[in-house]
Specification:
Blueprint (H helix, E strand, L loop, with lengths): L3 H14 L4 H8 L3 H8 L7 H10 L22 H13 L1
Helix pairs in contact: 2-3
């Protein structure tokens, strides 16, 4: 996923697969339904911590990749940024 719109669409699809309404999802996140609507529409100004929480709730995992180390293969070795990202996700819970 390369942009906020793709992330929002992915979250919306997974939310629906899990049988969650936007209202129920918003309650789990502690936000208003309007926030979920904007997130799924690709709001690029959504709070990063909440976006991570939303990804976690629907069972999606975001990965960071160091472009300087990328080989053109999407299975490139994870960078130390993945470790940092994991710590941020745990702290937000």
């Amino acid at each position: 996923m390369n942009n906020a719109e793709q992330i929002g669409r992915a979250i919306g699809l997974k939310r629906k697969q899990k049988g969650l309404s936007q209202t129920a999802f918003a309650e789990l996140l502690g936000v208003e339904r309007k926030w979920v609507i904007r997130l799924e529409a690709g709001n690029s100004k959504a709070e990063f911590g909440r976006v991570l929480q939303a990804l976690d709730l629907v069972g999606l995992r975001a990965m960071l990749r160091d472009q300087d180390r990328a080989t053109g293969d999407d299975r490139a070795q994870p960078s130390r940024l993945d470790e940092v990202f994991s710590r941020v996700q745990r702290r937000d819970r």
